[in-house]
Amino acid sequence: MTVVSINKLAKLSEHFTLAELTKTKTNIKNVPNEAQVNNLKRLCGWLEQLRLRYNPIIINSGYRSEAVNKAVGGVKDSNHLTGCAVDIRVTGIEQLIRYAAILLDISDQKGEDFDELLLERSSKGNYWLHFAVRPSGNRRKVRLI
To answer: Whole-structure pTM over 0.70, yes or no?
Structure first.
């Protein structure tokens, strides 16, 4: 696999950049390979449709290298490792539910499944939406965590 350098101007889609989908608060290298970038592009297709209906979309986390995933406490088989997942910042439960409903509508309208749609909350009471789309084998897993 080819390693792709991080270019802040490199676009994955009209409104989402490679830098935005690979940012991390750790000081650990977080560079996806070509296959992972292709997965991020597929994911950004969904994000563009979400953005059309609700703007802005703020990304907390996208692609994670194994080292970054371990540092942030991600699960070993996380979709973030393959560039198939994104965590989206929300301002509260209403926005969380709205995003989830829009993504479910997009799935139904496109006739395509996603892998995970997880409505998550931290112990501090912060909410975010975890959304994942794989190239194949999507499970349409919806959970409130």
So the answer is: yes
